[in-house]
């Protein structure tokens, strides 16, 4: 009798031991991880009807300032606060090159010129040049930004992984993921179009809380398996506001919003698919080494531990804005 009376407590003790064992690793992982934080500079380049160039460089705080090189045939007539240069027609067929660009920093370059749609291109250490001729489309830049943003957002990726652990059955899982995607696409669009706007720090804290709730549901199974898409959709609305913070930082072309917004959102979804495929491969390999149930439980505790740490850090950051 005593042996069976103690059995219900054993899983709880095992779970507590897991939490204690992984807590130091969680603190190390969570401290530097700021999901949905997209640190990029912005380079605005305007070509006036008379052929003059105007350039404005906006950088994140404490970022090293790179040096701009104009095409041969351009003469600087004003250096600050906005750089202005007169250029020959041949020079306007060249490119603006960014030198001394830190590998950790990327620039979102917006090029505007008469008679041409606004163009956006991502500049980084290995590709620092912005051609002034309209031979590149800006949609590819926003597509790449979306992919990079989702792959750099651990809380969003962990939420998707958690949904895959929680929902049973391929059909309900696909419906749940679709609801999550549709919901965060909706709020991303509303926020990018300035129809909905919330402060970013509280949104990030609530996103972390949504992960805590999901981890708890995986461990205890206390959320309804009949309508998991409702929970995923509600959380997706919140995550979309987190994505909108990236677009708020880099901006959208004022005369062509729909295309870049759709490209960014498509990049987010492509990154999500790539991440799920990688997670599936890793899970398949791990299942050869460990039973499914303990592996699922350990993953849930890892998600919950990270999410709890993020929640505490983000709540503390609310009272100490940088």
Query: What is the number of helical segments per DSSP (H or I, 4+ residues)?
Result: 9
Beta strands, count: 9
Kindly provide the radius of gyration, computed on alpha-carbon positions and rounded to a whole number of angstroms: 24 Å
Distance between the termini: 58 Å
> Please, how many domains?
2
What percentage of the residues does DSSP assign to strands (E)?
Answer: 5-15%
- The arrangement of helices and strands along the chain is HHEEEEEEEEEHHHHHHH
Average residue-wise pLDDT: 78
- The SS-based structural class is alpha+beta
Describe the sheet with the most strands.
6 strands, mixed
User: Which residue ranges are poorly predicted, with pLDDT under 50 across at least 5 consecutive positions?
Assistant: 1-37
| Spatial strand arrangement across the major sheet | 4-5-2-1-7-8
| Helix residue percentage | 40-55%
Estimate the global geometry from the Cα principal axes. Answer: elongated
Polypeptide structure, described:
The protein is an alpha+beta fold and 322 residues long. It has two domains: 15-36 and 153-318, no CATH class; 41-138, no CATH class. Helix content is 55%, strand content 14%. The protein has nine helices and nine strands. A six-stranded mixed beta sheet has the order 4-5-2-1-7-8. Strands 3-6-9 form a three-stranded antiparallel beta sheet, with no helix packed on it. The longest helix is centred in the last third of the chain and has 30 residues, at 258-287. It is elongated and about 70 Å long. The protein starts with a helix and ends with a helix. Mean pLDDT is 78; it is low at 1-37.
């Amino acid at each position: 009798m005593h042996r069976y009376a103690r059995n219900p407590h054993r899983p709880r003790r095992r779970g507590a031991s897991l939490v204690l064992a992984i807590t130091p690793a969680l603190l190390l992982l969570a401290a530097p991880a700021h999901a949905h934080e997209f640190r990029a500079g912005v380079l605005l380049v305007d070509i006036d009807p008379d052929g003059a160039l105007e350039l404005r460089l906006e950088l994140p705080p404490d970022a090293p300032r790179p040096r701009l090189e104009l095409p041969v045939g351009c003469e600087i007539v004003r250096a600050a606060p906005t750089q202005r240069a007169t250029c020959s027609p041949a020079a306007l067929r060249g490119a603006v090159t960014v030198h001394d660009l830190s590998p950790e920093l990327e620039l979102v370059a917006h090029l505007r010129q008469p008679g041409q749609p606004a163009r956006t291109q991502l500049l980084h250490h290995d590709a620092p040049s912005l051609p002034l001729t309209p031979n590149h489309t800006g949609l590819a830049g926003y597509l790449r930004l979306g992919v990079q943003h989702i792959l750099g957002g651990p809380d969003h990726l962990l939420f998707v992984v958690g949904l895959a652990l929680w929902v049973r059955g391929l059909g309900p899982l696909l419906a749940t993921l679709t609801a999550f995607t549709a919901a965060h696409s909706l709020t991303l669009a509303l926020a990018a179009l300035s129809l909905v706007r919330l402060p970013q720090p509280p949104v990030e804290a609530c996103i972390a809380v949504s992960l805590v709730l999901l981890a708890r549901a995986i461990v205890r199974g206390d959320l309804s398996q009949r309508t998991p898409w409702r929970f995923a959709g509600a959380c997706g609305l919140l995550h979309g506001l987190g994505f909108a913070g990236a677009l708020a930082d880099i901006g959208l072309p004022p005369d062509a919003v729909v295309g870049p917004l759709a490209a960014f959102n498509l990049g987010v979804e492509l990154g999500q698919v790539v991440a799920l495929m990688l997670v599936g491969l890793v899970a398949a390999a791990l299942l050869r080494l460990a039973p499914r149930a303990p592996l699922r439980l350990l993953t849930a505790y890892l998600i919950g531990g990270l999410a709890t740490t993020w929640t505490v850090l983000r709540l503390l950051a609310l009272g100490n804005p940088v």
